[in-house]
Amino acid sequence: MRFVWLALAIWGAIHPMYYFIQWFRANTWDIMAMVDAWHVNAATSGLVWDLTIAAVTLTIWVLVETTKSKDWKRLIAIPATFCIGVSCGLPLYLFLRSKA
Fold it and tell me: Could you read off the pLDDT of 1-37 as tens digits, one per residue?
């Protein structure tokens, strides 16, 4: 399963980023304009909040388990989650916590 998690982390980094870059190229590189686009209607706002809550939950889980295990490299899942997305951060964390 370890390499399934890694493959999903890579996919979760590349696939969403493809669409983000397309959007930025078409609409300028203004991050606040993208945030405005995320809240264009109730459906997209609901999705944003769903992913935000998932990201916060994942962050708490990473912090608690990393504190217990003292395996500090697992913390890289937190910036991966907030800079790329839960689609990258969660499988990356599962990869890092699985036994080599």
Answer: 999 999 999 999 999 999 999 999 999 888 899 999 9
Domain count, the chain: 1
* pLDDT tens sequence across 52-95: 999 999 999 999 999 999 999 999 999 999 999 999 999 999 99
How many Å apart are CA 27 and CA 42, to the nearest integer?
21
Q: Is 1 helix (H, G, I), strand (E, B) or coil?
A: coil
CA nearest 100: which of 77, 67, 70, 71? 71
Could you list the residue range(s) of the whole structural domain that residue 15 is in? 2-97
The secondary structure of 24-59 as a DSSP string is HHHH-S-HHHHHHHHTSSHHHHHHHHHHHHHHHHHH
